[in-house]
Structure formats: structure tokens, C-alpha cells
């Protein structure tokens, strides 16, 4: 039971790191003068810093330009997909993470 509780804590910690990294990378990619495709590298760098390089290898991020469906305004979108490895369990648990963050693209005045 103790190992199960610890694993749940680690999973939610990893989810928060991936979610925050995707959001930060989307804000970076939405900056004026920055290519929207630069968000993926930034997200993967932040995930590796927060989780360590061994855990970060199982999570891949993509980014690019898009359009907000309601307003039609340009956005920068970052999506991170992967899985978190179980730390204290010998079997491979399906602990998947899938986050998408979109931010309105800044334009130069």
C-alpha cells in the first residue's frame, strides 16, 4: 500500500511537470519573433530538468502554429505525449501523460 501511494505521488508530480513545461513552452513559442516550432525543444528541455533525463526520454513534444477555432486568431501550440515509468513496481504500468497548451501568438505592432 505504501509503494502504491508513493507511485501515485510520483505520477502526479510528473503530470504537473509535463503540464507546466508544455504551458511555459507554448508561452515562449507565442512570443513575437520566435518560431512556433521552437516550443517543442523548450518543453523537452524543461521536462528533462524537472524529471531527469531518464524519465524525459519517454515523453516527446511537438509544436507548431495553429488557429484558435472560436476566434480565428493565430496560436502557438505545444503537445507533449508519453508515459511515466513506474519507480517501485516491477511491471510496466500504463501511466500515460498527454498535454496540449495553446497561447495566442504575439504580433509586432
Structure description:
This protein has 109 residues and is an alpha+beta fold. It is 41% helix and 26% strand. It has helices at 2-29, 39-51, 53-56; strands spanning 59-67, 74-83, 96-104. It has a 3-stranded antiparallel beta sheet with strand order 1-2-3, with helices on one face. Strand 1 (59-67) and strand 2 form a beta hairpin. The protein is elongated, with a radius of gyration of 16 Å. The model has no long low-confidence stretch (mean pLDDT 90).
Sequence of strands across the biggest β-sheet: 1-2-3
Average pLDDT works out at 90
Low-confidence stretches: none
Spatial extent as radius of gyration: 16 Å
What sequence of helices (H) and strands (E) makes up the elements? Answer: HHHEEE
Q: How would you characterize the largest beta sheet?
A: 3 strands, antiparallel
- How many strands in all? 3
Structural class: alpha+beta
Number of helices: 3
Q: Kindly, what is the distance between the CA atoms of the first and last residues, rounded to a whole number of angstroms?
A: 57 Å
Q: Please estimate the helix content.
A: 40-55%
Offer a concise description of the structure:
Helices cover 41% and strands 26% of the residues. It has helices at 2-29, 39-51, 53-56; strands at 59-67, 74-83, 96-104. The chain has a three-stranded antiparallel beta sheet with strand order 1-2-3, covered by helices on one side.
